[in-house]
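---------- Forwarded message ----------

FYI, see the Tc1-like transposase DDE domain-containing protein record below. Original note from H. follows.
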Amino acid sequence: MGQYSAEEIGFLDEFSKDERTTQRRRGRAKKGRRACVRGVFVHGHRVSGEGLLTLDGIVTSMVVEGSMTREKFLYFLEHTVMPLTSPYPGKLSVLVMDNARIHHGAEILELAERFGLLS
């Protein structure tokens, strides 16, 4: 990462929220006791999103009902993120993504190549 200037890099990440987001999966308890969490079981409404973070802040994002799928992510990438990029070594020419399953695939690499980004 050190070989790229800060203006060249953009970070993509996803998030989700539902009624269970505030409940912890782990807890602390006295030795020999179980950690106990009580909460209301809710079949709720889920919202997911994806955002592009640069030196200028979050420059674009997309929020969808339900989970973010690969098709929705590809649409966001092609129609919202890629028009903001420039060929390497220009401004926003390196996109950094985590290891989420929707961030993998030949379609992502094809888009990167088509827009002249590093992959």
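H. also flagged this: The mean pLDDT is 84.
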